[in-house]
Here is the input.
Amino acid sequence: MTLPIKNGWFGRKRHIRLYMDLSTTCDIRCVQCFREAIIPPPMKVTRAQLEILEREVFPYIERLSLSCTGEPLYLPIFPEALRAAKRAGVPYVRIQTNATHLDEAMSALLLDEGLSHLGVSLDAATKETFERIRVGADWEMVTGNIRRFVEMRNARRRVEPEVSLNFTLMTDNCHEALPLIDLARDLGVTSISYHHMIVERPEMKSHNLAYDPPRMNALLQSLREQAAARGVHVSVPKDLPDTITPWEGRLLEEPVYNGRCIAAEDSWMFLIPDGHCFPCLNLRDRFTLGNVFTTPFRDIWYGESNQAFRGEALRNQCARGCDHCKAVLTDDTGHELAYLAKRLTTRSATEIDRLKKPTSFPADLSLPTAAVNSL
Ligand code: SF4
Ligand code: SF4
Here is the structure.
């Protein structure tokens, strides 16, 4: 059965937002990253597969993220992927990067090829905190790269790509959330996105400010006020309730989240480098909608699995397979499940734990665990 899909007929209007990675790798190691809990199996998109994407997938995409969970700029295939997206007419192409490889040549390429948005994850406003959290990245190099990129863009009298900074709010860096606003202005950046931290391992709970609502809410209010005063656009999570409903630790068998599903509402598709598609990254453990390297994308979009998921999520405002929405934490901040990686809370996701786990959370960042809720 074909269910109605938002925004009209597939072929007449681009409306799909595709989130993908060209590889499962990253060249640095951040303490809050999911890679501190699991190591994804190595995969990368080949040139032959990129041709399939350009021909079969990109022509249907309205907004494309060429990186979501890995670093794109050090991949040899990245320039060709960006060109392929533009040749296919994708109106909006963005990347998320750690900016370590945003050198002058790469900056020129991004400007020449018409990137729409450059998101840089920074998480700090000083060298000391930055290099402690983003292990392997160099503060002077990264901030210098951002500054030069903005100058090169401005020299061309362009407003695109828009540049924004990302900041994951943690106990370890929250004292630098406010100073980041002035740093952004100094770098020529006018947009910052602040996020809650997702707890990837139980011991990371002590680093999540969500367990301290008064402190978090005071910070959020200061961020709003200072950003308004400085003319910097910020995206800040909603205030937290006085207490967070704790998760009791029982692994959920068949999770169903009753709330808004932005993946269904905004026609998301998530593509991993081996070609498999999912409605959202959070459902990667559940089912694949199909593989774009073996099945036409149109057939996947109109396939029963995709239609059923979106139809149900839109009609019932629920997402089958989600314990909570990890994609848009700002919608419901009242339950601890919102902050815990799904691997920790559902039985279906424990499969992912078969992947190799790295060593423990860096000792120099560990804090007293008195405030940590036990799992
Ligand atoms: S730059 Fe992003 S993908 Fe790489 S380790 Fe840091 S958080 Fe993870
Ligand atoms: S995490 Fe679940 S509820 Fe949230 S957007 Fe993704 S699929 Fe929908």
